[in-house]
Amino acid sequence: MSTAKDPAEPQNQAQNIIVIHPGSYYLRIGRASDVNPVKIVHAIARRRKPGGETHRDGVLPSIVEKTKELLQELEDCRLQITHTLQSCVQSNGQRRYATPPQQIAAFNRRSQPEVVPDSQTDWTDKDGRDVVIGEDVLSLNPKGEYNVHFPIRRGELNLHAGVGGSLFAVMSDLQTIWEHVLRTRLDINPSDMKQYRAVLVIPDIYNRAHLREYVTLLLNQIGFGCCFLVQDHVAATFGAGLGYACVVDVGDEKTSVSCVEDGISHPNTRVRFDYGGADVTQVLYWLLQKCAFPYRECNEKSPLDGVLLRRLKEDFGHVNLDVCGSVEKSFTVQHPGMQKRNYTLQVGDEAMVAPLSIFYTELLAITGANRTAPKTQKWCSSQPHPEDCFDAEYLRETGRRNKDNLEQSAIDSGTLANADAPDEDLVVDGLEQEREAKANDRDYLLPSGQLVGLDQAVIQSIERCSSDELKRKMYSCILIVGGGMKFAGIGSWMQSQLARKIPAVYRSEQNIVSSPKDMDPEITSWKGAAVMSCLESVVELWLTEPEWTRYGLRILREKAVFMW
């Protein structure tokens, strides 16, 4: 006799699934049944041991030394973008106009802050905690006795030679932050953790050794009952409800592009750049300083000033060609130990030039991000791991040994002439792969060694697709996700740039999706992972702790929803 299914069962199941999307600046975590995830600053501060070494990760990437050559390069690029904007037309057909920077600077020099009396606040380290997590980290006294760590930087684990930079220390920081959110924000008792399942959103270009650490963290350290991993670009297509898309993910410190079809991210099309919204923030700050930024004490290395500059980028930044001339803006500065101050300033095309730095990457020289070679999947896959008995390194070495043994036994038996061993095809030679990976990286670099703009990266990613039909599909659906490109009008700008550069045969197909289902593009991937976790077809994907302990990376290779 068959029993009817309880209609509430999927909802109950979703309440026991925790979706985790860790980023360079924010951590998004929540139940699959939640409308929106909990979002906290992905940082931790630990009290320094007496006489211990100091380490403080910044909110923004560091600015490189401003040499005469660098300043000239930045200025040349700024003028190029300014001239491009002046040659554009508004929606009413009239030419754009701009207020001279000297006029804006004159206004800003005269601007004096309005001080609000009795508005002083205190630093958050007065309560004597040994560990501080999330937004509270930003309000710690920079001269205090805490070391500050962001466990993920540029989309990768933040490994470095300083204190707290070892793999063990970084994974411990992740465990402390995630367990804190699970306990305090999601009200999950640590003793009940085995009843919960975890879905971890990982980068589309991943490091296999790091995936091993993540699964160990989820199953052995935090103690989830089971888990599975999904790439962020694949999750984004599920979140947007699309069967295929060229996914453009601009985060805080990294930007990645890949082509996804039917839940598979095509490895050859994947590329990642070490720049994002935080680099755009530094570009905006440089532009504002050129226009006599009235908050003269601003220090981009200070956490609270870094947060302020991020907010100004989000409030001021746009690519709306109908906004011409200077616009009056206001902002508030409130730091512990000081009175609140209200500032007024004028902003011109600086608000448009900064967001366009992801297309004109010479401006990213301010943080050195335009000098970092892009990463492809082959770059990450070339890192062998002793536990994975099917990686290229293992197959290459065992293939060679098998060939040598076959040849030796054939010589001993007298059957080998000058012919090659019959099993030569078993040899997996990584040199060819390495050459191909380097060629892929070169595709994303200009002859001068600088990165191409985002529009060119999209074209090069799609052009790597294996068939004309697949290319046509990808040009017809370009999905923009992530929080680093949330500027009004930037989707239209990208569309116009692509229209001029893509092969003529695909131009009529081109379509850009920037906020699918009216969803915040920041949470598209998180939402997609939540949707995936509740599908009946993912039952086979869940990885349990006993399986992981017994088989390690081999079971992950077998169960992963992506090509290993």
Query: What is the mean predicted local confidence, pLDDT?
Result: 86
CATH class of the largest domain: Alpha Beta
Number of strands: 20
Please give the alpha-carbon distance between the first and last residues: 43 Å
Indicate the overall shape: globular
How large is the count of helical segments? 18
CATH architecture of the largest domain: 2-Layer Sandwich
Strand content: 15-25%
Uncertain segments: 1-8, 415-434
Helix percentage: 25-40%
- Rg estimate, integer Å: 26 Å
Question: What is the assigned CATH homologous superfamily of the largest domain?
Answer: ATPase, nucleotide binding domain
Structural class by secondary-structure content: alpha+beta
CATH fold category name of the largest domain? Nucleotidyltransferase, domain 5
Biggest sheet: strands, sense, closure?
A: 6 strands, mixed
Query: How many structural domains?
Result: 3
The largest beta-sheet arranges its strands as 3-2-1-10-11-20
GO molecular function: ATP binding
Family: Belongs to the actin family. ARP8 subfamily.
Function: Plays an important role in the functional organization of mitotic chromosomes. Exhibits low basal ATPase activity, and unable to polymerize.
Protein name: Actin-related protein 8
